[in-house]
Specification:
By secondary structure, the protein is α+β, with helices and mostly antiparallel strands. The chain is built from five helices and 13 strands. The protein has helices at residues 37-43, 53-57, 92-95, 99-102, 131-142; strands at residues 2-4, 7-9, 14-16, 21-25, 31-35, 46-51, 59-60, 65-71, 75-79, 84-89, 111-115, 146-147, 153-154. The strands form four sheets. The chain has a six-stranded antiparallel β-sheet with strand order 3-4-5-11-10-7. The protein has a three-stranded antiparallel β-sheet with strand order 6-8-9. It has a two-stranded antiparallel sheet with strand order 1-2.
Length: 166
């Protein structure tokens, strides 16, 4: 496991640094999608998760919004990394959205998809990366100021530094 500014980036995951998303290929061919530790830290306390119509209907094209996450200083969509069928939504997030902050790679996952084609095989330039390349992209991203919803450049906020109970 690698860390950057106290945020974890587990090995074996693919990262979309631009959108602060991670994905994991499961043994059954599905992929699990979630917000990275860096993403949840930058967003702050996640207060609301809502699943879109596409996520509830079960079909999504690449780039379709599957969920919307809201915090006090940020609102953002969770886009589908590939075309496929939504096989599961993390309904626990509806009652306890803070799970994304507390355990982004475990209990805080957002959706599971069954891709129409093997994930990333058809489009290796989709922006997903692993390992050292992900760290380098995050290092470059974190050198830039974070502009919140209020339009104010904010310091990097970290759930790990606020002693939240996992």
């Amino acid at each position: 496991m690698t860390s950057i500014r106290n945020c974890e980036l587990p090995d074996g995951l693919l990262y979309d640094v631009e959108h602060d998303l991670w994905t994991r290929l499961e043994a059954d061919g599905t992929i699990t999608l979630g917000l990275t530790d860096v993403g949840q830290s930058r967003a702050g306390h996640i207060q609301l998760v809502s699943f879109t119509r596409r996520a509830r209907a079960g079909r999504a094209a690449r780039g379709d919004s599957l969920a919307v996450l809201e915090s006090a200083k940020w609102v953002g969509p969770v886009a589908s990394p590939t075309a496929g069928s939504v096989v599961e939504r993390n309904e626990a997030l509806l009652a306890r959205p803070k799970l994304i902050n507390l355990d982004p790679y475990g209990r805080g996952w957002i959706v599971r998809l069954r891709p129409d084609e093997p994930f990333l095989a058809a489009d290796p330039d989709a922006g997903w990366t692993t390992g050292r390349a992900a760290i380098e992209r995050y290092e470059a991203k974190l050198r830039l100021p974070f502009r919140s919803v209020s339009g104010v450049d904010e310091d990097f906020w970290c759930v790990h530094c606020n002693e939240w109970d996992v």
